[in-house]
Design goal:
Layout: H1 3-37, H2 44-57, H3 63-72, H4 74-92, H5 95-107, H6 111-129, H7 131-149, H8 153-166, H9 177-181, H10 189-214, H11 216-219, H12 234-255, H13 261-279, H14 283-289, H15 294-310, H16 313-327, H17 329-347, H18 349-363, H19 367-379, H20 389-400, H21 407-432
Helix pairs in contact: 1-2, 1-15, 2-15, 3-15, 4-7, 4-12, 4-13, 4-15, 5-6, 5-7, 6-7, 6-8, 7-8, 7-20, 8-10, 8-20, 10-21, 12-13, 15-18, 16-17, 16-18, 17-18, 17-19, 17-21, 18-19, 19-21
Amino acid sequence: MDFLGIGHTFCGACTRMMFHHEAIWAIAALTTAGVIIRPFRIAEWVWAVTGAALLVVMGLIPVSMAGAGILKGGDVYLFLTGMMLLSETARANGLFDWIATSAVNHAAGSTSRLFTLVYLAGVVVTTFMSNDATAVVLTPAVLAVATKAKADPLPLLFACALIANAASFVLPVSNPANLVLYDGALPALGSWMASFALPSLMAIVTTYLVLRLIERKHLRQACASQVEPMRLTVGGRAALAGIVLTAVLLVTISAFDRPLGLPTALAGVATALAVSVLARRSPLTLVKEISWGVLPLVAGLFVLVEAIDSTGLIGEIAQILKRAAQSDPTAAALGSGSLLAFISNLMNNLPAGLIASEAVIQAHPPRLVVDNLLIGVDLGPNLSVTGSLATILWLQVIRRGGEDVGFMQFLKIGAVAMPAALVTALGARLLMG
């Protein structure tokens, strides 16, 4: 029997497999870098789609695997579609201008008070409609607020970006990623609040205090004390009613642990059509104004995670997590939550959360570990501008409004705000046991 020949064949197969895995990791790393850095100012979705396509074209993953990865994001695509329709409907019918006028008049010439009003609005929108809604629904309103008040828009915009992540684990509905980590089996609402009420409060308060301290010079500047009040149009009132009803619908569905994507999409479509009829406008105009590139961006990221899973890397992560949790659950909870928070900024919290959820399914760690992983994946992205899908959406919205924030500009604030909030939130959860 030719054992030598068999050995050569086996070694050759091992070498090919290793090259195969290394190629997948290299493409995933380069794609992630493209999404984060945006070389040549090419849109984020182009890099994600290109990376996913390369995996298939080079034969690194079969077409069926790529298709399975794309299909896994179905609920997310529907959710984002509904939110973008709601946002554009509200913007086109003057709802944001009306909110801006009201906020400026309530601030009475105080930029600091205006900042606090914006932050509190972000807490409410994120809690009841999700962090993505804060990015696509609240941010345009805040841009309008800054214009009306003749105030520096950046502190107000940073408030939107950071609260979108800081308040994203108040309720299950506050972030679609919350559904992922628990594999669709969320804890009961009472149990959820017992775990996350105090950590959420700490994250929200700490982020507010840090951001206010960093932006204190800008917040001392004066802004317009009063602007002429405006009446909300019929279309604007209908858009507001659609947003409120959608929020109630999502909280209700979340309590029954049902998927949020289809209800959100249906609510967005229904609101857009109803408001268009009342305002006597074509709904096609709304559709043309939406930044649809976010959907292929998400799809590309899902394919990348599917490819990484095929290399066995997630299985290794699961084993490490399992051993750590068995040895010292408290240390495992603190370490894994902190590590995931920072990793989410290296590869975006959507793929990081997907990888973590697969590892949790395989490792079956204690509830304390899973809860801290959730805090890490939700709050960690406040470090960098591309840490979460919500922040990427926020960036797209402010670019449409004529503003822009660079990677380093965001990092200077995130490097202070995120670790401070993360320590207080993780610490609160650990103290609760």
